[in-house]
Amino acid sequence: MEPLAGAGSRRPATLADVAAASGVATSTVSRALSNPGRVNAMTRERIERAARELDYVPNSQARALTSGRTRAIAVLVSDVTNPFYFGIIRGTQQQLKAAGYTQLLIDTEESDEFEDGMLHKLRRSFDGAILAASRLTDRRLTTLATELPLVAINRQTRGVPSVFIDTPSGMEQALGHLVSLGHREIAYVSGPETSWPNEGRWRALQRAGGAYGVTVRRIGPFTPKKSAGAAAADALLNAGVTACIAFNDLLAIGMLMRLRERGVSVPDEISIVGCDDIFGADFCSPPLTTLTAPIEQAGRTAVSILLSRLESDSIVAARQSATLPTHLTIRASTGPAPHVKGRS
């Protein structure tokens, strides 16, 4: 005689076992566990209690075949080694775990082709996708949004649900800070040309520069990694400016290291501002003035928007976008412009 399912038994509990224990049909159990909102609250609680007592573990592959849902969400980042994405990944993981979903992490290696290819190759493995700093074109991203449920982080494209970290406004804050210190010749150290946030930050600095009556020059593009900081620092010294705002903290930290090697004092001779306030930005020498962004919150918010769409089965019913503010955190990498030092 086959032993009963549950804790200490020889075989794992099945959907039928849960149905028998809770006195309902197998189809009702399936609905209660995959789409709780479609089952009466009292019945759902009875089913969930039976599932816990039997140590029932859903078979994700079987569930996907019968319901078309995998309970998995793909999270795509352009460089998994970049500390900026640590916060995104942590935020999405926490929110997905709380909702009973699995996170499928994909590193797109800064490649739009690889990003597009992975979305198609693994399409049957996830219910929806979160694209952090996507390198896809607006046209391609818009098309994808009609083919699968997705949310873009740090990207605003018409028709695409998004969570936007408002670094352009932060750029205006950073420029105002430098102007208040007497800087008039300022550079923007550009990130990748394919980066949508990069262009948004540059446009914001151009507008703010005109409003403040100062010159903002663009140098680059540079890879958004610490290793690119040396070339960026050398280019900065050739630009004849007294301050710069870098695309991200990694680039800024690499610049600080190179400037120290060349005997250039920061901030006495040149001021540096980063972006994102990643882990380590306050540990470098000198500690980095940077834009502080709610990175983990962006991940959690993106999951909320995506699950709202999935569970409502209606694009219209789901919240489509959110904007999260940033603020400038002032540390020791910025100071008065050299020509105003010593003034009272």
From TrEMBL:
Pfam families: LacI, Peripla_BP_3. InterPro entries: HTH_LacI (IPR000843), LacI/GalR-like_sensor (IPR046335), Lambda_DNA-bd_dom_sf (IPR010982), Peripla_BP_I (IPR028082). Keywords: DNA-binding, Transcription, Transcription regulation. CDD domains: HTH_LacI, PBP1_LacI_sugar_binding-like. It comes from the Bacteria. GO terms for molecular function: DNA-binding transcription factor activity; transcription cis-regulatory region binding. Residues 13-67 form the HTH lacI-type domain. This is LacI family transcriptional regulator. It comes from Leifsonia tongyongensis.
